[in-house]
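Sequence in, structure out. Go.
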Amino acid sequence: MIIYYIEITIQKDICKEWVRWMKKKHIPDMMATKMFIRQHFSKDEFIEYRYHISYELKNMNDYIRYTEEFAKDLQNDHLIRFKDKFNAKRRILTEMKNFH
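Output:
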């Protein structure tokens, strides 16, 4: 399983608006691509105004397809709406098997 992980630090003055927009617009739009199995949206308890979003995919081919067909428009939508109000770090992770 592949995990597309995003860490976002958002400015205080737009934080509530951003969280609302993520829940009602952006995350549903991401899931509507049908590339992702599930998502997790979390607030960092130690760093104020930092959030973590992870989207699970079946395999790397699905991630590549997401980047080729959907990523640019979805990321631009976020960038235009919240320009200069956030810092994002993106990572691709591979789930490790259980070690028993």
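Check: The two ends are 19 Å apart (CA to CA). The beta strands are 2-10, 38-43, 50-57, 86-94.
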